[in-house]
Amino acid sequence: MKIAPLFLFLFILIISSCNNEPPKTQPAVKVEDTAKFYPLKDFINEQVRYVDLRNFPIYKITVRDAKKDSVTISKDQFIALAGIFLNREASFTKEKASFKESVFNDQSTGSITFNYQSTNSKTEVQAIDVLLDEQTNIVKRIFIRSEYNRGDTTVREQCNWKANKSFQVNRTLTTKGGYASDERNYINWNDK
């Protein structure tokens, strides 16, 4: 008698398991990017507004293959040249999963330095250094090192921003055929 309820229970269990629907798959959950890097875009935009709202004379000094030229530029030209920094920041942000952050206090310069180093040699931006004043935590300088190809030309670029004063965009261009050229651009609005 006790065997019949056991068979009945197993029979119901087998029947109910055959009628089960396959498990439903859960929709993919989008994972938010929570990596926090120094807000370079905000800093550059703030610096551009700082210059745009004032009547600084803006100078551009270019040295190309040892030939020097200097000219006064308009605010629109300044904004276009500063766009190089925003382009590098956009590239950095797009590829930020390839960067490793380190922070150190450089007592020789009185700076706290945030360093972002690419772990992938294929990224356009290779490294960024943000130097903050160790007393005020206000940006003193930004350095962006990039390397990229344009056609058959390799471009190595160093962008430096000195807060509230000036910036530089220096490039070395080389081709596989042996051509090489250096260009240094110094944009000054308040650096005496």
**Inertia-based shape:** globular
Largest sheet: 9 strands, antiparallel
Percent of residues in helices comes to 25-40%
Element order: H for helix, E for strand: HHEEHEEEEEEE
User: Into which percentage range does the β-strand content fall?
Assistant: 35-45%
How many domains comprise the coordinates? 1
Q: Major sheet: order of its strands? A: 2-1-9-8-7-6-5-4-3
Total strand segments: 9
Task: Give the end-to-end Cα distance, rounded to a whole number of Å.
Answer: 104 Å
Average pLDDT confidence is 87
By secondary-structure content and strand pairing, the structural class works out as alpha+beta
How many DSSP helices? 3
**Which regions are unreliable across 5 or more consecutive residues at pLDDT < 50?**
none
Radius of gyration: 29 Å
Explain the overall architecture:
26% of the residues lie in helices and 42% in strands. It has 192 residues and is an alpha+beta fold. The chain has one domain (40-188). It has a nine-stranded antiparallel β-sheet, covered by helices on one side. Strand 8 and strand 9 form a beta hairpin. The chain is globular. The model has no long low-confidence stretch (mean pLDDT 87).
What does the secondary structure layout of this molecule look like, with pairings?
Elements: H1 3-18, H2 40-52, E1 58-64, E2 67-73, H3 75-94, E3 99-106, E4 111-118, E5 125-133, E6 139-150, E7 153-162, E8 166-175, E9 180-188
Antiparallel strand pairs: 1-2, 1-9, 3-4, 4-5, 5-6, 6-7, 7-8, 8-9
Helix pairs in contact: 2-3
Descriptive tags:
single chain, 192 residues, alpha+beta, 9 strands, 26% helix, 42% strand
